[in-house]
Design brief:
The complex is a heterodimer of chains A (about 800) and B (about 350). Helices cover about 25% and strands about 25% of the residues of chain A. Chain A has about 800 residues and is of the alpha+beta class. Chain A has six domains: about 1-40 and about 155-190, Phenylalanyl-tRNA Synthetase, Chain B, domain 1, CATH 3.30.56; about 40-145, Nucleic acid-binding proteins (OB fold (Dihydrolipoamide Acetyltransferase, E2P)), CATH 2.40.50.140; about 205-395, Phenylalanyl-tRNA Synthetase, Chain B, domain 3 (3-Layer(bba) Sandwich); about 405-475, Phenylalanyl-tRNA Synthetase, Chain B, domain 1, CATH 3.30.56.10; about 490-690, Bira Bifunctional Protein, Domain 2 (BirA Bifunctional Protein, domain 2, 2-Layer Sandwich); about 705-800, Ferrodoxin-fold anticodon-binding domain (Alpha-Beta Plaits), CATH 3.30.70.380. Chain A starts with a strand and ends with a strand. Chain B has two domains: about 5-90, no CATH class; about 110-340, BirA Bifunctional Protein, domain 2. Chain B is built from eleven helices and ten strands. Chain B is elongated and about 125 Å long. The two termini of chain B are about 80 Å apart. The chains are: A alpha+beta (about 800), B alpha+beta (about 350).
Chain lengths: ~800, ~350
């Protein structure tokens, strides 16, 4: 909502300055979004006429225009607008002027070799409208103004307010003035509109169909006959220009003015174009009409339309149609002032994707009792400016407005706001805001003003009182430093631990969108269901991610393109399994690309490999408190991992829930994405599948036991079939005697010379120690033999002699 | 001259000469070997007249100690000279680079969430979470934003079904609803997390982070709200004084509602929080609307309190001088390395939020 201080002064008597005004507006909840200057250099922008155009000698699209800027002064201006032609009245900006939109200062400049003295401006460049197609076209009326400043001399700034959706009353200047007056910023001017006393009959019949979902509950109108539509008088044009609107014709300007002034949208029809009478009804499916925006709309059923015998004239409260629009030669006018249901307006506008000033106001709720005021005010202005005779006012209603009453307990104010104001003060504020106030024992009986659809209960009254008395009166109550519940639960603690644990292994944490490109998602979707976003921001962000890899691989590729070679990134966040709330999992996903020790004088470089990520996963889990001796790992992994170089990790051999996957990313994916790196490995840890460690640190630290008896290390080398897993050997050995076998290490794996084909040699070192005595040679020999026997029996291995 | 004196003088002079280790060991054996000169003298002690025996033994011991000390010190000297010579040969170029190391980092948004949690932990808030995919009811209707409410226009919502029943949450406020439905009052929680709006330009990204706050108890009023946020902002920006402005606004789920601005000024292109006369909007808040409490079966006649919502990315930008919101999610290695935090820098109450 754009206002000027000058316009406000029509409604508000005040001696205060604009600076105070801006502060006060914000203080009472009418936030000042911006203050734009239309003045200042404004007087430099002159009404001018193009008297000749020629094609630019060096550019097809440009024209060289001779422009009359008054007092027989002709300027040469280069202009690219298609509508620049001889005889056009427009707005000229001389060198030195600052273009309001771009804030750039014009200079005399050579454009493709032709010197241009100034510029012809579009409406958008002047902040008059969003119209940027061509230069401003002024009506013939302006011919007498050539050479004069287009903008009036008003020094008033354009104040753009962000009005919250609960305050439709402040979409009119008067509503804003009322709030300001209540807060002590001046006095509201009494402007009671004089009623129209007319003896002329209203000869156009208006009917509101009583049907289900009827969006119009009241339709007021009057006829104004024998008018002569014209340009608006200067005061009215200046008014509209002062807030950045473009005057069109007196009738349109007047309806706009009344809407902006008292938030009462009106519509003027050319009465002669209406067939017989007005019928307000629900639309039928497939009905069409051409609206004032020159677009054709095809309607669904049940939209509130204003129609006549021939069909739809307009969408009630949203936009009128071209068939009945007023023009300069319009003689008889039907002026409409109606009430439309916010919900109905919103539904229709949404379905047709239409946004207009009227729609914006009606969907927030117009004062239902302003129907007559609006007609009075506008009809009188039309008569004043365009002449003619006003008929009696006719108001059709299918519902009567009931005033809202609230019983307000004044004690509630302090209970919620934490500070006190006197009852007297409360009553004054409420009265100033338009409430009727009656004292009823300990309560106030309030009648809510009809322009405040947002107020229906006591807390709404508290808000009004706090707002107008000022938020600065609210005290600061220091918070108490007391904690009844731990800040994080165990799961959240684990989240934070794992996050920092992975980062400490050299991974940079990334945060990427929860949605992703369908193509990338498909690479990592495996057997999961695709979840589409109905209205994505772009097709590349069209689905919720089924895996974090889709985003990470995209970004790792971008970083490789930036010239980085060795990269490790990770993200901890949601992946989605379905479109219902809760069908998501928290995953820690990491990717590592390139080499270790690249270009090192001391270490030999090598590609990152699956055992790097296996270490990162295992170490992270061990740090978080899980026992790696119980981990169970096999090689069943989703299809986006290298089938031979990837693993699946369970916290124990019950294999209930997959704790993690790790491995090389499938070479096919790398090929399709065209990612250029020596090696790409990744992992996924599934937070929800990690059973919370039962033991707390406190529990773990209690028992400390160790053995001081001598320990022995024995080495074994087994020859096994290639498919036998090292883990099988380890498990078998550890089962021989868990109390004596303290540690098992695989220190060599070998295939090739001296080993039969399809077999391999695995060398294992076993640490044996008793916690009761020192083992003698005999004991050790026994265990040795047991180890060899068990391994040979269970895995088909042969000990290497 | 007694024998002892003779031995002493002879060997002192021998030991003062230039000798190598083997020569010294030879001397050692000449003196202290089985039939060495000193050893022989010791054997003689028994044969000496009783009157002189004591003195003889004492003199002998002194000479023995003196010679022994001298021998071991000469050996040490030679040995360490030898080691030093060897070490000298082992000298390396210490300016060669160390073995390579990797440094991981924590994303500034994660760090900021931890900072926020740490501050609110001190005044008794606990952390709650909710799902990213929400139903329409929790995201809007339960929060007193029924269908057709114009306030819904401000939330450009991503939907997951044609009926618009499932969506990506547009704010963290649905966590309020979930928390209050799950438990009984009082409530004192914060809920950080991802939020989504189909909006994308220089200052908006389709995904961003919010932290929701909710404090419901008996007699919690707007003064508590003001005090809590003032405390938070001061702690977060690690400044002693903060300029804050509460101004009326409107959110369907709170009433009265407020937006909060903090004072700042620009110095050398950097934002200084807490000084100057410029205002910067940083959060929205208010007293939880009685309709919301009713929707979650909390009696508004008994319980009341406040809620707030803060943009986490925005806070991080202000505190750490990050200019571009979109860079947060762009995953540029250089940016992550520069703005990321060392994982050991865990914000805590006792060591402070940051270094």
């Amino acid at each position: 909502m754009i206002i000027t201080f000058d316009w406000l002064k029509d409604h508000l008597k005040t001696n205060l300055k604009e600076k105070n005004l801006l502060e006060q507006l914000t203080n009472i909840g009418l936030e000042v979004e911006s203050v734009k200057s239309l003045s200042g250099d404004n007087e430099l922008f002159k009404v001018a006429e193009i008297i000749k155009t020629e094609k630019h000698p060096n550019a097809d699209r440009l024209k060289v225009c001779d422009v009359n800027i008054g007092e027989n002064e002709i300027k040469k201006v280069v202009c690219g607008a298609e509508n620049a032609k001889k005889g056009l009245l427009t707005i000229y900006a001389p060198p030195g002027a600052i273009i309001p939109k771009t804030k750039t200062k014009l200079v005399v400049a050579k454009i493709r070799g032709v010197t241009s003295y100034g510029m012809l401006c579009s409406e958008s460049e002047l902040n008059l409208s969003d119209e940027s197609d061509g230069i401003t076209e002024l009506t013939r009326e302006f011919k007498k103004n050539i050479g004069k400043s287009y903008f009036s001399k008003s020094k008033s700034n354009l104040i753009d307010l962000s009005i919250t959706p609960n305050r439709p009353d402040c979409l009119g200047v008067r509503g804003i003035a009322r709030d300001l007056a209540a807060s002590g910023f001046g006095k509201l001017v009494d402007l009671r509109e004089k009623k129209i006393h007319s003896k002329n009959r209203h000869t156009l019949k208006v009917k509101i169909n009583k049907e289900r979902g009827q969006g119009c509950t009241a339709f007021g109108s009057c006829l104004i006959t024998n008018v002569k539509n014209s340009e608006s008088p200067k005061w009215l044009k200046d008014k509209l220009i002062s807030i950045g609107q473009k005057p069109i014709s007196a009738i349109v300007d007047i309806t706009n003015y009344v809407m902006l002034d008292i938030n009462r949208p009106l519509h003027a029809y050319d009465a002669d174009k209406i067939e017989k009478g007005i019928i307000v009804r629900n639309s039928k499916f497939g009905e069409e009409f051409t609206a004032l925006d020159n677009k054709n709309y095809k309607l669904e059923s049940g939209m509130c339309v204003i129609s006549d015998n021939k069909g739809v004239l307009g969408l009630g409260g949203i936009i009128g149609g071209t068939r009945s629009s007023t023009e300069f030669n319009t003689k008889n006018i039907l002026l409409e002032s109606a009430y439309f249901e916010p919900g109905s307006i919103r539904n229709t506008a949404k379905k047709l994707n239409l946004d207009t000033d009227a729609k914006f106001r009606f969907e927030r709720g117009i004062d239902p009792l302003s129907i007559e005021d609006g007609l009075d005010k506008a009809a009188k202005l039309i008569k004043e400016i365009c002449g003619g005779e006003i008929s009696k006012i006719d108001i059709q209603k299918i519902e009567t407005y009931k005033t809202k009453k609230i019983k307000f307990d004044p004690n509630i104010f302090e209970k919620i706001s934490g500070f006190k104001i006197s009852l007297k003060e409360m009553i004054k504020i409420l009265k100033d805001l338009g409430f009727e106030v009656k004292k009823d024992k300990k309560r106030l009986e309030l009648t809510v003003p009809s322009w405040r659809p947002d107020i229906s209960q006591e807390v709404d009254i508290v808000e009004e009182l706090v707002r107008i008395s000022g938020y600065e009166k609210i005290k600061y109550i220091e918070p108490i430093k007391k904690r009844k519940k731990s800040t994080l639960n165990k799961y959240q603690k684990l989240f934070h631990f794992l996050q920092r644990s992975v980062a400490s292994k050299g991974y940079l944490e990334a945060i990427t969108w929860s949605f992703t490109d369908k193509r990338y998602n498909d690479y990592f979707r495996d057997i999961k269901k695709e979840i589409k976003i109905i209205n994505p921001i772009s097709s590349e962000l069209g689905v919720l991610r089924n895996s974090i890899f889709s985003n990470l691989i995209l970004y790792i590729n971008k970083n490789l393109d930036r010239g980085f070679k060795d990269l490790s990134i990770f993200e901890i966040g949601p992946i989605f399994n379905g479109s219902n709330p809760g069908e998501q999992n928290t995953v820690i996903c990491g990717l590592s690309a390139g080499k270790k020790s690249r270009l090192s004088w001391i270490e030999k470089d090598r590609n990152v490999d699956v055992f790097d990520v296996k270490r990162d996963v295992v170490q992270t889990l061990v740090e978080a408190g899980y026992n790696s001796e119980k981990f169970f790992i096999d090689n069943e992994t989703p299809n986006y991992y290298h089938p031979g170089k990837s693993g699946r990790l369970f916290l124990n051999n019950k294999k209930n829930q997959i704790a993690a996957y790790f491995g090389e990313i499938h070479p096919n994916i790398l090929k399709q994405i065209d990612i250029k790196t020596e090696s790409l490995v990744g992992f996924e840890i599934f937070m929800e599948n990690l059973e919370l460690p039962k033991k707390t640190l406190k529990d773990l630290k209690v028992k400390f036991s160790f053995s001081d008896f001598q320990k022995s290390e024995r080495d074994f080398a087994f020859i096994v079939n290639k498919e036998v897993k090292a883990q099988d050997l380890i498990d078998t050995i550890s089962n021989v005697d868990e109390s004596l076998i303290k540690d098992i290490k695989v220190f060599d794996v070998y295939e090739g010379d001296n080993i039969p084909e399809n077999q391999k040699s695995i060398a294992i070192s076993v640490t044996i120690q008793s916690s009761e005595r020192t083992l003698n040679e005999n004991d050790l020999e026994k265990i040795n033999n047991l180890i060899i026997k068990n391994v040979e029996d269970k895995t088909g291995a042969k000990i290497r002699s | 001259m007694s024998d002892l004196k003779k031995i002493k003088d002879e060997f002192l002079s021998k030991l003062s000469g230039k000798l190598d280790i083997s020569e010294i060991i030879q001397i050692k054996s000449d003196l202290f070997g089985k039939s060495g000169l000193i050893s022989t003298q010791f054997k003689k002690i028994g044969t000496i007249a009783e009157s002189e025996r004591k003195k003889f033994a004492s003199d002998l011991n002194i000479i023995k100690d003196e010679l022994q000390d001298l021998i071991s010190s000469r050996i040490n000297e030679l040995e360490s000279a030898e080691i030093n010579k060897k070490l000298e040969k082992e000298k390396i170029d210490i300016t060669l680079p160390e073995r390579s190391f990797v440094r991981g980092k924590i994303h500034p948004v994660s760090q900021t969430i931890d900072e926020i949690s740490s501050i609110f932990s001190e005044i008794g808030f606990s952390v709650e979470e909710g799902p990213d995919v929400e139903n329409e009811y929790n995201n809007f209707t339960a929060l007193n934003t029924p269908e057709n409410h114009p306030a819904r226009d401000m939330h450009d919502t991503f939907y997951l079904d044609e009926k618009k029943q499932k969506l990506l949450r547009t704010h963290t406020s649905p966590v309020q609803i979930r928390t209050m439905l799950k438990d009984k009052p009082p409530f004192k929680i914060i809920a950080p997390g991802r939020t989504y709006r189909s909006d994308s330009d220089q200052t908006h990204s389709p995904m961003f982070h919010q932290v929701e706050g909710l404090h419901i108890d008996k007699n919690i009023n707007m003064g508590h709200l003001k005090g809590c946020l003032n405390y938070f902002i001061k702690e977060f920006f690690e400044v002693d004084k903060i300029k804050m402005r509460f101004r009326p606004s409107h959110f369907p789920f709170t009433e009265p509602s407020a937006e909060v601005d903090i004072g700042y000024e620009m110095k050398d292109g950097k934002i200084i929080i807490g000084e100057g006369d410029q205002w910067l909007e940083i959060l929205g808040c208010g007293m939880v609307h009685p309709n919301v409490l009713k929707n979650v079966k909390v009696d508004p006649a008994k319980f009341q309190g406040y809620a707030f919502g803060i943009g986490i990315d925005r806070l991080a930008m202000l505190k750490y001088g990050i200019n571009d919101l979109r860079a947060f999610f762009d995953c540029d290695y250089r940016w992550l390395s520069h703005f990321g935090f060392d994982p050991l820098d865990v914000p805590t109450n006792y060591r402070g939020l940051s270094r």
